[in-house]
Amino acid sequence: MEAASPATFRPTWQQALGHGLYLGALSAVAGVTAAVMVTLAWPGGGGPPGWAFAVVFTVPLLLGAVLGLMAGRHTGVEVGTRGIRTSSVFHEGMAPWHRVVDLRAERRGRRTVVSVYLDSGASVQLHAPYSGGFFAADPQFELKLFALSHLWRSHRFGGLPS
């Protein structure tokens, strides 16, 4: 039997954009806070021009959105004949099929995520697929979960059909 081609799951573009906007908004709030502190300490009480606050708020927000979309392309899960490989911008991991004892959807906060349970008792939360509210919604989450479950069961109980 030939090796099956790997299945890849990545965050949707809306999820990546939402994550980037979230991080950009945090950066923008920090920037505006710093700008307010500089204004209060400005000699003469005049402070920087008003448009500087708009720039300090808008630039991190837009930069966060772009970086979120770029990071979303490097974050995901690849399921192949050897097991489940997770990758993100900062970390990669591998769970061979012989170590995976369960795979299920769980609620974590406001999201539904896929967790993989290993024979050591540890659990690994996959970076994709997941679903939540607003930008985190994935209309095909159940289909992706079913595909992951099918691949796991196929490898656990006798390999993929030819």
Helix and strand topology:
Elements: E1 7-9, H1 13-41, H2 50-74, E2 76-79, E3 83-87, E4 92-96, E5 100-108, E6 111-118, E7 123-131, H3 141-156
Give the strand content.
Answer: 25-35%
Name the overall outline: elongated
- Number of strand segments: 7
Mean pLDDT: 81
Write a structural description.
By secondary structure, this protein is an alpha+beta fold. It is 43% helix and 27% strand. It is built from three helices and seven strands. It has helices spanning 13-41, 50-74, 141-156, and strands spanning 7-9, 76-79, 83-87, 92-96, 100-108, 111-118, 123-131. Helix 1 packs antiparallel against helix 2 (50-74). The termini are close together. The mean pLDDT is 81.
Compact summary:
The protein has 162 residues and is an alpha+beta fold. It has three helices and seven strands.
Offer a few descriptive terms.
elongated; 3-stranded antiparallel beta sheet; 4-stranded antiparallel beta sheet; alpha+beta; 43% helix; 162 residues; 7 strands
